Predict the 3D structure of the following.
Amino acid sequence: MKRIAILGSTGSIGISALEVIKKAKNDFKAVALSANSNIALLKTQINRFNPKFVCINDGLFFRRLLPEIKNRVRAFSGSQGLLSMLRHKDIDTVLLAISGSAALEPLLEAISCKKTICLANKEALVMAGAIIMKRAALNKVKIIPIDSEQSAIWQCLQGEDRNKIKRIYLTASGGPFRKINGSRLKKVSVRDCLAHPRWKMGRKITIDSASLMNKGLELIEAMHLFGVGPDKIKVIVHPEAVIHSMVEFVDGVILAQLSVTDMRIPIKYALSYPERIDSGIKPVDFVKLKKLNFEAPDLKKFPCLGLAYQAAEKGGTFPCVINAANEVSVQSFLRGKIRFIDIPAVIEKVMSKHKFTISPSLGDIQNADNWARNESYAAIERLN
């Protein structure tokens, strides 16, 4: 039985992961849960799964919940508490579903503790992919991706020589604005952006999907996961979201992974790897589907993807900077401080000012992240 820590258990991925664990209780045990502040849902999860450890990031909410759980679980608080929890020998697999840059430190800690990583966060690899993959290799730690696109590529590459990759096709649904005229993006609301046509996800990633920045971050993530340059990764819009990504090899063969749009499928594969176990999910009905469509992304309408390609090609601290500028811009948009079209405008302004380091240390990355956030806030103030 795999003993799993779910970091971000109250988010959409964490909830789906617990559903998978509940249906495969002979294979998996949720021994540790972490959440930021959703103590109502976390309390329900504690009652249902009886973990040994719980970590609550927000100190105020930790103090509220502690009297109710202290005699039942070992409780930790804050970022340092999370790192302490990860060191426990009763955890052998870490499912990392914390959103944004906050995942970087616990990911590095889990690697140093030689835990198997099931990774549902892309920002950490965007920020510090070279450092993460090097440390994982030194510690002989597997990083198994959970994002449907990266999981698809991972599966297509099983048993294959990665030196024979000609191209990776990273598929995108196109988001909620695929068909609308670019001029209408000036007036789209937060609600419009959150109405994703295929996936039910967290707010930040859904906004990234609407801008196609999510695909840009996945581009950089894939570079590190699979050891290829940006010239070998092509983003292609596939609105049915049935083909989750494809790999083309030098002999002209293209392998694709297909399934219905249900995150429980890549979650279960990551947790059970290298085994495959029954998901209980209905397969694709090809007769009803009838056809699959593909189109090139519109970089003029969705400039975030083009900016991500620029950051990927420049490398160094540029990916970290684009990630930080995007996080600040998306949060500002969600709070009503800027328009949707201001997100790429802010990112571009910050990138234009960045004096990057080509082979950054972890300290360089942290400095670049702080710098980019400050510059982003300044750029947003100038917009207003």
Remarks:
- The CA atoms of residues 23 and 280 lie 9 Å apart.
